Sequence to fold (153 residues):
Amino acid sequence: MKCPFCGAEDTKVTDSRDSAEAFETRRRRECEKCEKRFTTYERIEQHPLVVIKKDGRRESFSHDKLMGGIVKSCQKREVSMVKIEEACRDIENILRNEDKSEISSNLIGGLVARKLKKLDKVAYIRFASIYKDFEDVTDFEKEIKSIKTRGFN
Ligand SMILES: [Zn+2]
Fold:
C-alpha cells in the first residue's frame, strides 16, 4: 500500500479490525518514511441481493430483517446473540455464494429453518409456524411429533 502523503512504498499495518456485519476490514497504517498515519478499508465486493417474495414482489435483501426474524423466533429461549449472529452470517454467506442476484424468500426461509433446527427446536417450530410452506410439510409434522413425544427440552 502506497503512502498517500509521500508516495513511499513501505507502509506498515499498525492495527487491523474486522467488522463482521459490514464484511469489511479496517486497517490503520503508518508510512515508514514520513510516519504519517492513514486508514484503509478492505471490503468484499458485494452485488446487491434481491429477494423475491411469495407474492412475486421484490425487495432488497436486508441483514437486519433476517436477524430480526431469527431473534423473534428465539425469544425467551436460551440462544445467545453470538449464536444468532453466527447463524445470520452463515446464511448470508450461503446466499451470496449462490452467485445469483435474485433469490427466493423460500430459499432463505429454508436456510433459517435448518439453522434453527440445530440451535433450538422451539425456535424452529415458531419460525416454521410464521413462515409456513417453506419446506416439506411432512418434515415439519415429523418434527412436531417428535417434540410431542420427547417434550420440549
Ligand atoms: Zn509517507
About this structure: The chain has a mean pLDDT of 83. The first helix runs from residue 63 to 73. The pocket of zinc ion is lined by residues 3, 5-6, 8, 31, 33-34, 36 (CB under 6 Å). Helices lie at 63-73, 81-97, 105-119, 121-130, 137-150.
